[in-house]
Specification:
alpha/beta; 267 residues; Rossmann fold; binds nicotinamide-adenine-dinucleotide; globular
């Protein structure tokens, strides 16, 4: 343990993961934060998933303080409940890491259904924004805080999944907006844009929807990445660790691709 987040209170929203053979972004980030000395509040809609992350976090650092909260972030009172729980448990809030993102049922714009659009925008954008809004007063009072939003390179390059792309483009815009409006209060706000990451969400769910083997899809995805392979959730977690740490003290308003060079093809 090197203590890059020593004592920092970090809230990871979407800290569970879909079951599957690889580790998800939220769980890997929670473990990485714990290894660096963070005190954690792990939040997820699925109780079993967040408890599994708690076990993995404790295995990663047996001295970590870790609390969990099972809540759906689309509920009206969820953002206030999350921030209140963090402050009641630890007395402050240093890092809000927004990992929740969904895309099931998405389609190209000419085939996209109203209810799918509404659900994806509600979870990925509206609820994320409401979580940021709920965290800002405490961070302003402290004169310090970090928010990291998990976007996607789909925000700049994906043409067959309209609602997901629109939601993540909104996350990028919100990130820059929050960064500028809160910079003088000592609050840094950044986004990570993962590319093709080998998680159950990225590979297994998509393979099931396409009716093909995970290995076939994994190979196809890897072939489109300039570096020749998919990333792992640890790549995303390590970027999140940097942005959350004091090493990134002068970094705000950044939308950081973690994508093996894929977005370098755009533009
Ligand atoms: N895997 C990839 O290839 C890839 C690429 C780009 C971006 N991303 C982004 O990474 C993030 C997620 O990665 P992951 O591997 O951790 O995914 P995951 O789906 O395994 O984990 C997300 C967690 O969020 C929880 N969640 C979903 N809806 C919720 C809600 N309404 N309230 C509370 N919790 C909720 C789920 O229960 C799950 O435990 C998403 O934002 C996704 O868009 C992934």
């Amino acid at each position: 343990m090197t203590g890059r987040l020593d004592g920092k209170v970090c809230v990871v929203v979407g800290a569970g993961q879909q079951p599957g053979p690889t580790i998800g972004n939220g769980r890997a980030t929670s473990m990485r934060f714990a290894q660096e000395g963070a005190r954690l509040l792990l939040v997820d809609r699925v109780g079993d998933a967040v408890e599994r992350t708690r076990n993995d976090v404790t295995a990663a650092n047996t001295t970590t303080e870790v609390a969990t909260l099972t809540v759906d972030i689309t509920a009206d009172d969820a953002p206030d409940t999350i921030m209140r729980t963090a402050i009641e448990t630890y007395g402050r809030l240093d890092v809000l890491h927004n990992n929740v993102g969904i895309g099931a049922g998405d389609a190209p714009p000419h085939r996209l259904a109203d209810d799918v659009f509404d659900r994806i925008i509600d979870v990925n954008l509206r609820s994320l924004w409401r979580c940021c809004r709920a965290a800002i007063p405490q961070m302003r009072e402290q004169g310090a805080g970090v928010i990291t939003n998990i976007s996607s390179i789909a925000s700049v390059a994906a043409n067959h999944i309209a609602a997901y792309r629109m939601s993540k483009a909104g996350v990028d815009a919100l990130t820059r907006n929050l960064a500028v409006t809160n910079a003088k209060h000592g609050i840094r706000v950044n986004a990570i844009l993962p590319g093709l990451i080998d998680t159950p969400l990225g590979v297994d769910s998509a393979a099931a929807a396409l009716g093909i083997d995970r290995e076939v899809l994994a190979e196809r995805r890897a072939a489109t990445v300039p570096m020749g392979h998919q990333g792992t959730a640890w790549d995303v977690a390590n970027a999140a660790l940097f942005l959350a740490s004091d090493e990134a003290a002068f970094v705000t308003g950044v939308c950081l691709p973690v994508d093996g060079g894929q977005s370098a093809r755009v533009g």
